[in-house]
Amino acid sequence: MNHSTRASGLVRHRMAAGATAALLGVAVAVGSGLGSPAAAADGATLTGIVLGVGADQSQRIVNWYSSADTAQKVQLAPTAAIVDGAFPADAVTVDAVGAANTSTTGFNRHATLTSLRENVAYSYRVGAEGNWSPAYAFKTQDFEGDYDFLFFGDPQIGSSGDRLKDQAGWEDTLKVATAANPDAELLVSGGDHVESANDEGQWTSFLAPDQLRQVPLVATIGNHDVGGKSYEQHHFTPNTDRTAPYYDNGNPAGTKSGGDYWFVYKDVLFIDINSNSYKVPVGGGNVGDSAHVAYITDVINKHGAEAKWKVLVYHHSIYSPASHATDTDNKDRREHFTTAFSNLGIDMVLQGHDHSYSRSYAIKNGQKADPAEQPGAAEVTPGPGGVIYVTANSASGSKYYDIKTPDATGTGIRGNGPDPLNPGSYWYNSVQNQEHVRSYVKVQVKADKLVLENLRSGTCAAPNASVEGGSWCNNTTAAQPVGSIVDKVTVHPYQGDGQSIQVNVPNPAPGEFGWTIDGYNGLVNLGVAQERNGSFFQANGKINPILVSDSRRSLAPWSISASVGDFRDGDKSFSGSYLGWTPYVLDAGAGAQANAQVLSGFQDQGQGLSVSRGLSWADQGHPRGSAKIGADLDLQIPDSVAKGSYRATLTITALSS
């Protein structure tokens, strides 16, 4: 395996036509770990080592638990530089910080690894000279492009009454999930890691899988994780606000834990909130939920432009199908959260708490966005303000909740009435599932879509603590084996939000002139830019063809033109003048003529498509009919352009007298 970093400036370009977006990205992969469960001799016993997510893809936060308050650190080196288990003399060391844990004995420790390079396998260990833990390994991937992450609901170790059986199910789910998805880059939790917040035996079982030392964990605090500092002890998180509104407000000051935090990982802005911090409305207000909305709003206002997708994670599921579906506090959250989430452009909300699987319809302002959206639809375009809510089933098999029957409360924002299209389900859920079988959710992050799958990680057989304890199970192993799909959906972004852009032009009526995009207005992949003469990169492709129809009696002249703005990725950009094209007529008709070639501004120091340029035209008196117009795209950019995932808008304009 090649562990070298990629050359700076090498990028992949994608472009969509008609009020369009262009994106640049690269493929990704993830490595695995080495070593055995951590333990150290001498002064301090070091346990609970877990690799956490950092503020972006170039960071990781290492967390662990120490029995003694000694000076400790993380040591890091490329795996290739470690010989016979010995770290090199120039290995990076980062001092750990932490304090005494107030709810158990011992001490919290964490250290942040920064300035990681892409596509490098690293090894790390914690402790101090003479008292190091075993070494563990992780691999960074390319810092741009598509990637997968895995989402896990409520391991809740200990809830079955048999901690070790719960641990076995949790370990097996992570083993199955990472073996099936070796390139997954994040493990995201829905909360309730343990049954009892301060039971270190349960935490030891939760942290037993080595995958938690190899792939960064995005930790979420659940209601069973509060009441003590153990959650923070094991999960120090980036960009975290731990002031009062974001802590669990139902516990004494010394045992509060949690906070709201955010990070950007490639094309996704993740926001993770502590939904335990919730106050019953007083005088019509809701301090906790108002504070969370303000936090999310502030993060999106400051950092939303850095990503293409916005994913929110918190524990308390508000559109789930089982025991918690009718909870008053979750109905309150529907009122206080959903309109804000729609207005803020959240794409997906990931939740736990209800130990069953559900995928909502696209929900806008607390109501089904499109009444015609069909149950179990495999392709969904939520539209502006549409949000998909996902509740994950148990990842350990420790406890399942059975799906409840809809009631007579209707389809209002607080209602749990039946779906008119599928009366056995709640009105808000497109898919509901409970087999008493362990599962996990896989999310593929693409430039122009999110692909979500709920996958079985077990069967009725052990390890499945709840079923082993006597609960029912209706999985058929032959038809529904480990790895089989429970649900799959492709979520397309609203085309007008700058992701993949749709042109809202009506179809031409008889006796009218009009134009539209031919077929699905998806992204056009320009491929991987190729280096030319050691001085610039070039990528080529074609716009989605444009259909022009003119059935007017006047036979008046018409023209189609377009211009592109600057290509941007956060604070990085390059000029749209570097894009040129060569128009042509695919299907002749309506008098269509192709305009002249426009060179990339890199060739002639011109303005390229950064100013309006003609695509096609027809003279007065042209015949009636229709034509299909295309253009070859030519993007040439200097090799000084920073690597990134860039986007631009190509605006197409039609004129006719």
From TrEMBL:
Tagged with keyword Hydrolase: no
- Keyword DNA repair listed: no
Lineage top rank: taxon: Bacteria
Concerning Gene3D superfamilies, the annotation shows: 3.60.21.10, Purple acid phosphatase-like, N-terminal (2.60.40.380)
Write the record's keywords in alphabetical order, separated by commas: Signal
Q: Which Pfam families match?
A: Metallophos, Pur_ac_phosph_N
Signal sequence residues: 1-40
- Which terms in the Gene Ontology molecular function aspect does this entry carry? acid phosphatase activity; metal ion binding
- Domain Calcineurin-like phosphoesterase, residue spans: 149-357
**Where does the record place the Purple acid phosphatase N-terminal domain?**
48-140
**Protein's recorded name:** Calcineurin-like phosphoesterase family protein
Name its species: Catellatospora methionotrophica
Q: What is the lineage of its organism?
A: Bacteria, Bacillati, Actinomycetota, Actinomycetes, Micromonosporales
